[in-house]
Amino acid sequence: xxxxxxxxxxxxxxxxxxxxxxxxxxxxxxxxxxxxxxxxxxxxxxxxxxxxxxxxxxxxxxxxxxxxxxxxxxxxxxxxxxxxxxxxxxxxxxx
Length: 95
What we know:
Blueprint: H1 8-21, E1 28-30, H2 32-43, E2 53-55, H3 58-69, H4 87-91
Parallel strand pairs: 1-2
Helix pairs in contact: 1-2
């Protein structure tokens, strides 16, 4: 969601809450908007936020994933805007 809107923070918080609700093994988030949203939720008492991995850019996320975060039987859900280039994950050696 590379956008400038008043609801951006709330929208990103809702995405995080949804991700937490499906009880994944790991959550990886990329970008400034998610950084703000995680901080906001943590400030509201979200205990699961401490387990979220956040990266400023997709390259950092790919590096972390390449260090063994993925197993052959895992499911990787990717949600994001073209603006932060999450398609690089799909074009990497990870998949």
